[in-house]
Amino acid sequence: MLPESVLNRAAAEMLDYAGSGQSVMEMSHRSKVYDEIIVGAQQLLREVMNIPDNYKVLFVQGGASLQFAAVPLNLMATNCADYSVTGQFSGKAHKEAQKYGLANCIASSKDQNFTTIPHVKAADLTPGADYLHICHNNTIFGSKFAELPETGNVPLVADISSSFLSEPMDVSKFGVLYGGAQKNVAPAGLTIVIVREDLLGKARACTPEVMNWKLMAENDSMLNTPPCWSIYMCKLVLEWIIQLGGLTVMQQRNEYKAKLLYDYLDKSAMFSNPVQPKFRSLMNVTFVAKSDELNDMFVKDAAAAGFVNLKGHRSVGGMRASIYNAMPVEGLEQLVAFMADFERKYA
Ligand code: PMP
User: Fold this and answer.
1) Which of 7, 161, 219, 317 falls 20 to 30 Å from 345 in CA-CA distance?
2) What is the mean pLDDT of the chain?
């Protein structure tokens, strides 16, 4: 979801942005009017996330999936890196990195069906590893890191696609943060990379230029045409977050919303959530009914009542409520009321 006020503003500015006589979709990315948008978006992101000055912010394309390759290409200087595999996307990142060197899986919750997140200590890291990669929030399994791994001087690299802007994060604890924007930040097409400056300049010679973070940083994300419209939408979303009070308020809202659903699941006799409570996601709440038949009936009845996109990812089944920043509290209240009705009806 995107905030309705943001969509309304984009609609109002659609044909003529700020008296420019053009839609943002039509602008040259090198024009003065567009420059204010991309520079503004970057400044607002720095402000909202409290990004220290020694980090670069890059607006790139290709999704988080392209960064699965960009991470080893830019950072794997000694040919060795560590991965924590706690869900589908960290598994994909790990698999991609194996093309470029020794990518060690040093922690995994696969044998527990990704219902938990193993803690990693500095002593668990492979000596000489260039970085440790994690996926901060596991979109499909509905789990999230409750505490960050301890990596000592080894840079921590995190895919934050599905927890971007959902809560305050101490950027200084990470070497690199990256994520696709399409959950909480903007429509699809934009990927954001936040990278500590001292990690730039280690890319392999074969790294495609548009995947080379140093080159992208030197060119202010304008090495080639950036995803102009998504960056504009990102700026509007950031303005909305600031207006609401920033990431602390966003976190409080998200905790309140998620609690409504988790509390119901915990007392329900029909539905349950498989994730260890400490590691429950604020953004993606997974749940199952007592049988596959009930799961199917629930998804169908829910859709008929206007609750769409509740089917769990095809790889895990069951249900998943993705309750990103823009989902209003009423959305959760109504979902919980609908689930309670369903439970009464089919108990
Ligand atoms: N990482 C996470 C945590 C995701 O949720 C997703 C997409 N759902 C991806 C990576 C892949 O992102 P993209 O489609 O932008 O390549």
Assistant:
1) 317
2) 97
| pLDDT tens column, 171-207 | 999 999 999 999 999 999 999 999 999 999 999 999 9
Q: What integer pLDDT is reported at residue 273 of this predicted model?
A: 96
Which residue in this structure is represented by tokens 């010679």?
Answer: 205
Return the best residue to mutate from 139, 157, 281, 309 for the ligand 1 pocket (most ligand atoms within 8 A of CB): 139
The beta strand positions in the chain, using DSSP E, are: 55-60, 80-85, 102-108, 132-135, 137-138, 143-144, 156-159, 176-180, 191-196, 284-287, 319-322
Total H helices, total E strands in the chain = 9, 11
Does residue 67 have its Cβ closer than 6 Å to ligand 1? Answer: no
Domains of the chain: 4-244 (3.40.640.10), 247-346 (3.90.1150.10)
* Residue of minimum CA distance from atom 9 in ligand 1: 64
Task: Name which of 126, 114, 113 is nearest 279 in CA terms.
Answer: 114
Mean pLDDT of 248-268: 98
| 113 burial type by CB count under 10 A (0-12 exposed, 13-18 middle, 19+ buried) | exposed
Span from the CA of 268 to the centroid of ligand 1 (angstroms)? 31
Taking CA atoms only, the protein residue closest to ligand 1 atom 8 is 139
- Give the integer Cα–Cα distance in Å for 183 and 83: 23
